[in-house]
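Design request, tokens follow.
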């Protein structure tokens, strides 16, 4: 038998692989089924309970235990390694996906649950029981820590979801093959060859899958997106996909449409210029989000502008016009303007550090919809109070706030949250064909009325907005009227729940 320390190293590697598979499943579940908190909770809960079932089942496995242990590792390698590819290919099948997801999670959990009891039985008598338990669980928890750090910081940004699963499956298979030598004395010679053949077969399957990973991703995404994919990139923060059709091109973040080039001018003119009507001579402008540069294009029409600071957490987003030149043409090469300063940082962290020294006369808040807590924090009273500190007295603010028709509670939650943070808020909406009625909130710490006219320097420069249209944006019809909602705070994240519940009804 080998030194126990080598088997404890095995525990570390196996725990790392097992948790990575579940993080992958939770991530894909949140992409496809929405409500990331619920999906991660269900996936991790099912995984842990399945581990308990596997631990209970281990009592029925008999000698040769070392051979059983290797077979279990090969099972984890095969099911875990192919988990993300299978789920990715099933993302367009709404009914099949949850069944496959929870089946894979349960299977991987049961197989991982078999590992530790089997290893403890293999080492029984060679290590004192108190040392055996403490060392096995120490290495198991350290492996979980390694997975939780590797997954978001290294695996997803560098490998992507599909390749991450396959690479860790290959690691599991290599561990299993290594164990045929490590535990050779405990495996009957007749079984040793069969285990090695099975290990090589699993390695071959996973190697073939790794070679075809790009084709798997492409095929899976082609099932999800109606149009041809012309650009795709996975970043540490999101999945960027650009599609193209006869009408133009579209940008998706994590599967959610951000704009269509055919009608984005309606969205961005309505986002920027009502605020310009309140602050027509704004010299210092702050943009939070908006890394595509399309809001910048509208802001740069202001002849009084001296500097605009754009804060976006993802460098890949602000570099997208370089990677996909049609976007640079669409945003008028806004990032080349010397008045533009780009900051890559978390907006809340940046406002905490730099906000008080800015004193902007106009702020454009153009974050993606609040479909998970990392985005929901950017719509809280805490965030809006930080934003107030970055503004000059009486500055104008506009916040994109989702659809007041399709997510009515979420929309009014944004309005009430701005008011709770000390802003006077004016709700308004515009029709954008790609989205339907879309909502915004115009706000200021000073008293405000709906703007009556656009700045004169916009004459002849807009495709959508004019004086009568501007006034109509602030007319709230009955089906968009206010509803009673909670204020969105860091400790309740009410907005994310409103948003998810609303869109699930429509989907």
């Amino acid at each position: 038998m080998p030194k126990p320390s080598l088997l404890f190293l095995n525990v570390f590697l196996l725990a790392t692989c097992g948790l990575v598979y579940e993080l992958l499943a939770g991530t894909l579940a949140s992409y496809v089924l929405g409500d990331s908190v619920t999906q991660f909770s269900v996936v991790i809960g099912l995984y842990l309970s399945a581990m308990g079932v596997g631990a209970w089942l281990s009592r029925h496995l008999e000698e040769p235990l070392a051979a059983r242990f290797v077979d279990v590792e090969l099972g984890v390698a095969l099911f875990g390694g192919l988990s993300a590819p299978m789920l990715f290919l099933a993302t367009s099948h709404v009914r099949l996906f949850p069944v496959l997801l929870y089946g894979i999670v349960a299977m991987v959990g049961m197989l991982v649950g078999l590992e530790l009891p089997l290893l403890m039985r293999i080492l029984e008598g060679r290590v004192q029981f108190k040392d055996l338990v403490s060392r096995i669980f120490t290495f198991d928890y350290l492996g979980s820590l390694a997975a939780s750090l590797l997954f978001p910081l290294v695996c997803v940004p560098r490998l992507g979801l599909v390749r991450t699963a396959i690479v860790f499956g290959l690691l599991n298979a290599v561990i299993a093959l290594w164990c045929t030598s490590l535990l050779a004395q405990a495996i009957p010679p007749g079984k040793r060859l069969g285990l090695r053949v099975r290990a090589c077969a699993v390695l071959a399957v996973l190697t073939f899958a790794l070679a075809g990973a790009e084709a798997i991703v492409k095929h899976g995404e082609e099932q999800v997106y109606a149009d041809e994919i012309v650009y795709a990139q996975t970043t540490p923060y999101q999945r960027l996909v650009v599609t193209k059709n006869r009408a133009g091109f579209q940008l998706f973040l994590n599967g959610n449409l951000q704009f269509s080039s055919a009608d984005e001018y309606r969205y961005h003119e309505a986002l920027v210029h009502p605020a310009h009507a309140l602050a027509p001579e704004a010299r210092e402008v702050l943009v939070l989000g908006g890394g595509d540069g399309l809001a910048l294009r509208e802001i740069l029409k202001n002849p009084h502008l001296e500097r605009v600071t754009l804060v976006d957490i993802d460098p890949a987003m602000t570099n997208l016009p370089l990677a996909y030149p049609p976007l640079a043409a669409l945003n008028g090469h806004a990032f080349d303007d010397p008045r533009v300063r780009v900051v890559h940082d978390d907006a809340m962290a940046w406002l905490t550090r730099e906000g008080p020294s800015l004193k902007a006369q106009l702020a454009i808040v153009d974050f993606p919809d609040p479909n998970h807590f990392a985005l929901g924090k950017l719509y809280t009273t805490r965030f809006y109070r930080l934003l107030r500190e970055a503004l000059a007295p009486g500055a104008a603010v506009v916040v994109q706030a989702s659809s007041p028709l399709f997510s009515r509670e979420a929309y009014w939650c944004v309005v009430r949250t701005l008011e709770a943070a000390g802003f006077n808020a004016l709700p308004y909406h515009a029709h954008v064909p790609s989205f339907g009625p879309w909502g915004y909130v115009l706000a200021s710490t000073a008293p405000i009325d709906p703007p009556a006219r656009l700045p004169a320097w916009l004459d002849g420069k807009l495709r959508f907005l004019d004086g009568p249209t501007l006034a109509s944006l602030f007319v709230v019809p009955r089906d968009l009227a206010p509803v009673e909602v909670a204020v969105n705070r860091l400790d309740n994240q009410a907005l994310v729940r409103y948003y998810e519940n609303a869109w699930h009804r429509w989907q």
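Comment from the thread starter after seeing the answer: thanks! The radius of gyration is 27 Å.
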